[in-house]
Amino acid sequence: MTQKMLDQIEALANFKDYTQDYYKLAASIQALKQSMAINQSFLVEKNGKDQASVLIHIFGLLQSLFVSIDALYDMTKTTMNHKYAINVNMNKNLHELKYIRNDIVGHPTHRTYQSGGVGFSLLALEKTTMDEIVYETHLFKRKHHETLFRKINTLELIEDYEKEAFQIIQEVHAYLSKERIKPELSGLALQFLEQIKLDTFDYTLLQNIKDDYQSSNDLPKDSHNRLMWRINLLEMLDNWKETDQDKVDFIKYMKEDQALKVYQMTSVIEGLEPKLVELPLPELLQAFYRFIKNDESLIKYLKTLKDYDHPYRNSDLNELMTKADNNPKVKKLLSWFKRQQNEHRVYTIGSVLEKYKKNVQ
User: Fold this and answer.
1) Which residues pair with 48 in a beta bridge?
2) What secondary structure letter does DSSP report for 351?
3) Dihedral sign, CA of 286, 195, 86, 181?
């Protein structure tokens, strides 16, 4: 069924022969079809024990999955002009695949900390089998050596990829198969954002945006579509209660930030240029940006902060906390951040910390 939908997508897109979009879509669809065959071949050989053969099959599977995920992005951007149908990081196994790609197979990470530590990751070859990929992260600080082991079941990885890919292909197919009537949600999203700035959360308006977008795109309830995910983050943020005013202001800013993204995304979907909307920074975030501006070598520690499961997140956060020891506002913010155990809360705080710009005063 998936191969049939891919053939139909190529026909429905109806790109002019030999154009850039024609070849980009053809290459994406070819890669997605090839991955199906590679996955099946891997499963046939799943009982293999020879280490050299195991490694060839594991690296072949990983490379195929890396290429296939890139192909899904290219296919959606080429046919829909945006990538909102894809959010593979919502799946735990596919998110883990991202770490393997970035820190191990693609370009192994060697990370040095100002306070005297170093960290790196590598595949645990002697523990990796056809059933399970194992990799390890080593963190050295002063005389302390910490080793973290991570495992991925290959069968679950393949199943999760195929489920996610099917939903994305199905969404692209549905988009191309029907007359595209844009629901003009950007106006409603802007209205919602303006209300958030006035400290009013209109659940009815947000639900209308969510329902209209879901129905107009035939999205299943378990879709990981990025716009739906942003709306879910907004609902999570509105249920997050704090008594400290600095934290209350910070949460309000995060709601504004997510509402702005929803407005910008709906504008892109409708082919409109979104209006420029300025969001005043809360005091804790201003203090954090000034802290980074005073030592911009710390920027490299910001990227992992929003990713709750990232192997380097805790060590990167600890490095920032050590450097902020004499800065009460930043220490307050980072201590609050470190106490968060909900991955969505971690994402929303970490994503605004990562937005540091050099022109922040």
Assistant:
1) none
2) H
3) negative
Partners of 120 in beta bridges? 110, 138
Angle, CA of 294, 308 and 142, to the nearest 5°: 60
pLDDT at residue 46, as a whole number: 87
Tell me the pTM: 0.89
Cα-based angle 179, 163, 105 (whole degrees, multiple of 5): 115
Both tokens of 281, joined, read 């920074």
Residue 147's φ and ψ, nearest 5 degrees, are -120, 125
Sign of CA dihedral 307, 312, 315, 319: negative
- Cα 288 to Cα 27, 106, 321, 345: the distances in Å are 44, 32, 11, 18
Query: What tokens appear for 70 in the block?
Result: 């890139």
Where the chain has pLDDT below 70, the residues are 105-117, 180-183, 358-361
Q: What is the pLDDT of residues 350-359, one digit of tens each?
A: 999 999 974 4
pLDDT at 196: 98
Question: Sign of the CA dihedral 87, 93, 96, 101?
Answer: negative
Could you tell me if residue 356 is left (phi over 0), alpha (psi between -120 and 50 degrees) or otherwise beta?
Answer: beta
pLDDT score, position 85: 95
**One-character DSSP codes across 29-96:** HHHHHHHHHHHHHHHHTTT---HHHHHHHHHHHHHHHHHHHHHHHHHHHHHHSS-TT--GGGSHHHHH
DSSP secondary structure, 193-235, as one string: HHHHHTT---HHHHHHHHHHHHHHTT--TT---HHHHHHHHHH
**Pairing assessment for the beta strands 110-112 and 117-123 based on DSSP bridges:** antiparallel
DSSP structure class, residue 105: I
Q: Which residues pair with 151 in a beta bridge?
A: 134
- In Å, what is the CA distance from 234 to each residue of 189, 241, 259? 12, 13, 7
pLDDT tens for each residue of 281-310 = 999 999 999 999 999 999 999 999 999 999
